[in-house]
Amino acid sequence: MHLSSPTPFPQNRPRRLRRDAFTRNLVRESVLTPHDFIYPVFVHE
Q1: Which residues lie below 8 Å from residue 10, measured CB to CB, with a gap of 6+?
Q2: Which of 1, 8, 15, 44 is 20 to 30 A from 31 via CA?
């Protein structure tokens, strides 16, 4: 059985996906507050 060495961690880490503000806004984490939720209303007829 031949064991190969693990791949080294990359020395450079490109940031091309976060280059512009529009893309950064698409991938950022969302923060939800209680104000963001809608109170459920059920109608019984």
Answers
A1: none
A2: 15
Total number of residues shown for the chain: 45
Give the type of residue at 41.
V
How far the first Cα of the chain sits from its last, in Å, is: 72
Largest CA distance in the chain: 72
Using alpha carbons, list the distances in angstroms from residue 42 to 35, 38, 39. 20, 12, 10
- Model pTM above 0.70: no
- Taking the C-alpha atoms of residue 45 and residue 29, their distance in angstroms, rounded to an integer, is 41
